[in-house]
UniProtKB/TrEMBL annotation:
Gene Ontology BP annotations: thiamine diphosphate biosynthetic process; thiamine metabolic process
Pfam families linked to this entry: TPK_B1_binding, TPK_catalytic
Name listed for the protein in its UniProt record: Thiamin pyrophosphokinase 1
Keywords: ATP-binding, Kinase, Nucleotide-binding, Transferase
Top-level lineage group: Eukaryota
Residue ranges constituting the Thiamin pyrophosphokinase thiamin-binding domain according to the UniProt record: 194-261
Record GO terms (molecular function): ATP binding; kinase activity; thiamine binding; thiamine diphosphokinase activity
Keyword Kinase recorded: yes
Signal peptide (from-to): none
Length: 284
């Protein structure tokens, strides 16, 4: 079986996560990319590689302009050159943050423009719904979705993005969603047993990680591989949360939880040395 970002064994309710596979995806792992309206502060070409290997590419409203500006910094003029591999498959949103002229030009280059004016949902939520519809129509079986969403800036936007992660199973079932910032990865750990493979460079640099019970308490959680492990512990805001944690020299963190919670991890050392990891995922 090809290695992928996560492998599930339904009988054990076990999920294995391998962050390196985000930057070195095998062709058997089918994923989509979603770019939200937030800064794309990437100093290497790993974002370009992730984009090019995606089955579906989505830019969300102002994220379209962010993508164009990012490409310009890489020496790629999307609107004046024939760089079809960088043209979004879908452009969604209420379109209040993107020029109509740009949208028309991208439409002529092959993008499907889907205006989603419903103000009862965020553009992020609506993008996932439209992505699901597109994948169903084209019979694309997605394994994952990588959402590029910066983790700085407006706190209400950050929390809104986390809320969307919690709702993701309702929006697009059986597809894991990982939010990627230039310095971190964030995803939801659903109830059950999880194994997270930690790249060696993150262990060596004592990179940060956290387990956050946003929205509701976690009544029982057990971990291994962390500097400060949890043993049949309750996590809840107003009491104990596991922030500013790190690793105990282990290449694996395990989490057994009775409730959904947020896993987040810093990737700064990995980003600075990503070229060393794009040759093979078996580096640790």
């Amino acid at each position: 079986m090809p290695k992928s970002v996560m492998q599930c064994d339904p009988s054990l309710n076990k999920t294995v996560w391998d962050p390196l596979q985000i930057f070195n995806c095998c062709i058997q792992y089918k994923y989509a990319v979603v770019i939200l309206n937030s800064p794309l502060d990437w100093k290497n070409n790993s974002l370009l590689q992730i984009w090019k290997k995606a089955e579906v590419k989505v830019t969300v409203d102002g994220g379209t302009f962010r993508w164009i500006q990012y490409l310009k910094k890489q020496g790629i003029d999307l609107l004046n050159e024939h760089n079809n591999e960088y043209v979004p498959t879908l452009i969604t949103g209420d379109m209040d943050s993107c020029s109509g002229l740009i949208l028309e030009q991208l439409k002529s280059m092959g993008s499907m423009i889907i205006e989603t004016p419903d103000q009862n949902h965020t553009d992020y939520v609506k993008a996932l719904i439209e992505l699901r519809h597109y994948a169903e129509k084209k019979d694309i079986k997605l394994n994952g979705i990588y959402v590029f969403a910066d983790s700085s800036g407006r706190f209400d936007h950050i929390m809104g993005n986390i809320n969307t992660l919690y709702k993701s199973d309702e929006l697009i079932k059986n597809v894991q969603i990982i939010q990627i910032a230039n310095n971190s990865l964030t995803w939801i750990l659903r109830p059950g047993f999880h194994s997270i493979i930690i790249p060696k460079i993150l262990v060596q640099n004592s990179s940060w990680c956290g387990l956050l019970p946003i929205g509701a308490p976690v009544n029982c959680i057990i971990t291994t591989g962390l500097k400060w492990n949890l043993n049949n512990t309750t996590l809840k805001f107003g009491d104990l949360v596991s922030s500013s944690n790190t690793y105990d020299n282990s290449s694996e963190v395990t989490v057994n939880t009775d409730s959904s919670l947020v896993w987040t991890m810093g990737i700064e050392p990995l980003q600075k040395n990503i070229d060393d990891y794009q040759i093979s995922s078996n580096t640790y």
